[in-house]
Amino acid sequence: MTRSKQALTYALLAASLACPLLAQQKAPYEDASLPARERAQDLVKRMTLEEKAAQMMNEAPALPRLSIAEYNWWNEGLHGMARSGYATMFPQAIGMAATWDTRLVGEIGTTISTEARAKYNQAMAEGNHAQYYGLTIWSPNINIFRDPRWGRGQETYGEDPYLTSRLGVAFVEGLQGSDTLHPKTIATPKHFAVHSGPESERHRFNVTPSPHDLEETYLPAFRATITEAHAGSLMCAYNAVNGLPACANQALLADTLRKHWGFEGFITSDCGAVEDFFTGHKTSPDAEHAAAAAVLAGTDTNCGDTYKALPQAVRDKLLPESALDTALVRLFTARFALGMFDGTPKGVGTSGYARLPFSEDDSAAHRLLATRAAEEAMVLLKNDGTLPLKPGIRTLAVIGPNAALIAAIEGNYNAIPSSPVFPVDGVQAAFASSRVVYAQGSPHAEGVALPAPRTLFAPDQAGSGQPGLKAEYYSNPSFSGAPAVTRIDPQIDFDWTNASPVPGLSADSYSVRWSGMLTPPAPGDSTFGLRASRCGRCPDVEKLRVQLDGKEVDLGQHLPGTEAWDSVTPALLFHFADTQPHRLQIEYTHQSRRLAGGLSLRWLPPVAALRAEAVAAARQADVVLAFVGLSPELEGEEMPVHVQGFSGGDRTSIDLPAVQQQLLEAVSATGKPLVVVLLNGSALAVNWAQAHAAAVLEAWYPGEAGGTAIANTLLGKNNPGGKLPLTFYHSLDDLPPFDNYAMRGRTYRYFSGKPLYGFGYGLSYTTFAYSALHVATPKVKAGDSLVVEAEVRNTGARAGDEVAELYLTPPATDVSPRLVLAAFDRVHLQAGESRRLRFTLSPRQLSQVDAAGARSVTAGSYRLSVGGSQPGEGAVESAGFTIEGSQELPR
């Protein structure tokens, strides 16, 4: 150091000692009074190249020298805050779509963001920066459910771009709140774009949509959530579009999203999507080139670790360091706006959201909203008058694989419900004066395991009349001392992801012992399995011990090649010489702060014996309630499932699986009235049920209150008002190939055949009539809005909800849809009550897209129809009008 520099240093030090305020002066990025973007720009300038790259991955590490805490960008809130302990669990997204209720979906989004903030505030107080506790929510999924074979379609709002856009906007606004400068959370619409299977091909699949289909079907919902709801982030998809991976697609990310739609937020990749550039799509030779391509296209965050290659990519001049700066300013602008560097404790922020207490999570009010949402999601598909069930029923038979299954009310990307209500328990509670006889009846599909039913178990030798096993819960992993809680568990099928099994126990360390009697339904070999938490089977985290008739059971056995369960689930091979009770004891210990907990006792059931039990139950009953359908363990995201009807998470058949169809036919042969209740995430071709069952009710994956909502609907306490958000086809013969993304022949807008149940279809326990449809002007100048009014009246004897659906029939062209949902509104009407409906159709709602992808309001004759279904499927009112002139609309 030169003498002059040394003198200057001493002078500055002396000045700082003389003026403490100078020594404590904050850097601009630490000044909460400055705009978020200005703070972000200052912070990014202070980072090294390696630090910048690390902050662009979803697991962003701490930077102690800059007082930056670690942050994980990955959090899930599709229908409840997922994987972070107990939270309110709403119906799966497809069920939310069936409500056709934008106000309700907005309330759900608001509730989810409240619970996200409550969890985040608590996490900050505990110094917990783990995954699933952040404020960047990777929801909603607004891809178009173009084909019922797609296993992830359950996560979407259905097949229609307009319905999806309205629900997507409501949900995003609920998640983010009304303060644009200080969002409550940041929503992430996904997956941009043209993404809907097949799951097995997504890492290498290239979609080449026509310009018309891209603009007319695949982009509108994304446009709405960006331009109207101002979503703060967006996730790009795995697949390629027109030859370029979605996360490196300049046309999508730079041109459409940022240039045309004015998006200013940040973009995250789907997990592993950037790695796919060189492992799947082969558009990049290695990680360096892949990382550079993604950043240059505008992908700011990499879910994965491919961005570790960014420093070398900069040094190799594949991209300038300034490109990283641009991405990081977007990312840290979001974090500063969320208050992650301010408040006490540091990170919670200074807005009102910082004061949300943990008691807001899974609150009683939120659980009531979950019940209301599940009730609104119910869609009545058939009813011969059997529903609602009449008073005085002596015996109800409840059968089917979904009657007592937690997965069947959860769906995927789910919250962890603290008090889930299974259908059988909801029915028992609602029909307290009736005798309820339960039988599992069948697996979901032949050769597929499911949780062992409560009918196998009794807590003691004599049998108390209550099914289940005695459960002792200990507050330590060694079964030491007295149990904290002792109770009867009907079955062992628990999801305790980062959650306490029972009140008073830590989520990090506990043990549970189940004991009682197991009575096999038939002599012979029986195969059971113990599926532990998401960890699988980690000896340092979870330990299992099983005894049958006092003898230790070998847990080292596995079933190679079977689709019954994953390879880490130990198979318990039991041989029963008779059907007498056998003493069973299962011990489970969990010890981990970060890894999930929970246990499910599963089995490969003897199909004939189960069906015989269901038939016996039906013979005793006045009415049979059959809970059948699908499971998120069969339909979902990229799954290792390959059995008849299912492959890799997608479906190869839309029929009800054969073993369940045989169950329905067997119980129907008893002559008892059969009510079929479907729990599923996608359309089913239930042609037999439509022809033979007394009633068919679609319940979806209905959330934590699913059992209550279903029972209230069967009882008539809830009058079903939901409508289908997708078409139910008769057969796959009605559809083009799954991997064909052309819309011709798909969805109600382009399908010319007769569906089993159409988009927008749904019955009620009352009736509604429409009249006085009035178009404000018979001639509309291109570019003007159009006001449409109509009258709807409840003409029945019960109060109920009606979804008024307004459809537009445009002039026919080679590419135009045959019918377009233009507006809708869900209204509640008392018996005899009328309501005047008013819809204002914007130029965009009146527009069409030509073959080149240009959207315009075009001259011609149009027709509007309003009713409780599509025109041609029920009583509707219709009127015509013409548009004069033309006007091109912005992209």
Can you give me a brief rundown of this structure?
This protein is about 25% helix and about 20% strand. It contains 22 helices and 40 strands.
What's the N-to-C terminus distance? 60 Å
State which percent range the strand residues make up. 15-25%
How many strand elements? 40
Q: Count helical runs.
A: 22
Tell me the structural class: alpha+beta
Helix content: 10-25%
- Overall pLDDT confidence: 94
Query: What Rg do the Cα atoms give?
Result: 29 Å
Q: What would you say this structure looks like, in words?
A:
The longest helix is centred in the N-terminal third of the chain and has 24 residues, at 102-125. Helix 3 (36-45) packs across helix 14, helix 6 (102-125) packs parallel to helix 7 and helix 7 runs parallel beside helix 9. The chain has 891 residues and is an alpha+beta fold. Helix content is 25%, strand content 22%. The strands form eleven sheets. Strands 14, 15, 16, 17, 19, 20 and 22 form a seven-stranded antiparallel beta sheet that branches. The chain has a six-stranded mixed beta sheet with strand order 10-29-28-24-11-12, with helices on both faces. It is built from 22 helices and 40 strands.
